[in-house]
Amino acid sequence: MSELHNLCHFEKRPITIEEYVDPIKAYLKQGIPATYTVEEAYNYEHNISEEDSKFAGNTTPMHLICENVPLDCTEDEKNVVLEMMNQLWLNGAGWCLVNDKDETPGCILLRRGLHGSKYWDSCVDSGVRAEVLLRKLNDPNIEFLSDPEDEDMDVEIEDDIPELVTDEVNIKEEIEGKKEKSESKSDSVSELEDMYNGPAGATDTYLKTELEYKDGALITKDGSDGVMMQWEEELMKAGCDSLFKSIEDPKDINILNIGFGMGIIDTMIQKKNPTKHYICEAHPDVLKKLKKDGWYEKSNVVILEGKWQDTLPKLLTQGVFFDGIYYDTFSEHYEDMVEDLFDVIVGLLKPTGTFSFFNGLGADRLVCYEVYKKVVDLDLANYGLSVKFKEMNAPVTTLKENDGYDDSVWKEIKRAYWRCPVYYHPEASFM
Ligand SMILES: C[S@@+](CC[C@H](N)C(=O)[O-])C[C@H]1O[C@@H](n2cnc3c(N)ncnc32)[C@H](O)[C@@H]1O
Fold first, then answer.
1. What's the CATH number where 227 sits?
2. Which residues form the signal peptide (predicted)?
């Protein structure tokens, strides 16, 4: 283990600037990367090449700090630890790198009961900065001015922005992370690649995939990807209530739901008898279900067949405005929301209207979920929308520790897209 790693064990107390921050600054200044792992240090000390390394994990100094920070720190000591973390973030420490237990630094804090602490906030804020910055780095409209002296520096920028599938994990980031760690872990990498390119990650593949309604869920027929599941009913109820929250004229209530799925939220919307209820749905098997169940015959229902990307822009030219818009699709990415959906939403929402969506962004890991809660907040603010989040309990049957039990909702499902104990229900309206 290197001296940098040793430092992150906090063996000396009290934790002071002189004992901890000054040395960490010095190591970083000497050129030791903030992401230098315990495994790399071991390999270096034992003369083992990267190819021969048997380690799959990335135990970075940030992981060690989160693992070892004493629980009985004084306020002064806490500030010193936060300053160590700052120095590491400033020098490129990774908020979402995982160690050999598949834990990010934030996950370690969570396990140690430090969720909501200043250390936790430090990880979340670093995640927000990284996500926003990566998006900028990949924006083709941004020009980078380089110093000719730096041109021979080997700076690599990722090809694409890490994307979140709107109701699932950041699959791409995970694939890349796992590849980086160990090519020998080919099973989990190919599993993730399947996921990213399969129906859960690629809309065109999804729309050609056969679906079935089975045991309180809508799933893909061959792969058992969960498209929609009954356990989300309470979350849909909160969504439906938000849509009727700020009605401009009770005699002219216009609601739009994007993504029918099992029709849970649409059934709730119908019970409130809006003047017009638009349903936008793209999948042929789901449209068949809508026909079979008589949705086309309902006098106040308008079905928009096809992808919202194609059907909603037409509404913009027809002078249709909504009191409430709900968005919950499958296999789409956060990019779809931020680059296209929000543009349409601001055009279709009445000035008093409310926009809500199924908030599953990064929901397979609490730290990612909280990072994206802030990212969404920032992005919606760019559109003049302010978002409030109501905290709700997610069912315990969605949590990992219940996977072995019969009532785990993921029993027959290929991939759990929800792992957080809390649901942040979003409600956005114009500022
Ligand atoms: C998770 S389900 C919606 C569940 C729904 N909120 C409910 O309460 O049952 C997602 C739905 O969005 C549909 N969908 C996916 N991509 C879409 C797109 N681009 N445009 C319209 N619908 C889409 C899917 O076919 C699926 O029916």
1. 3.40.50.150
2. none
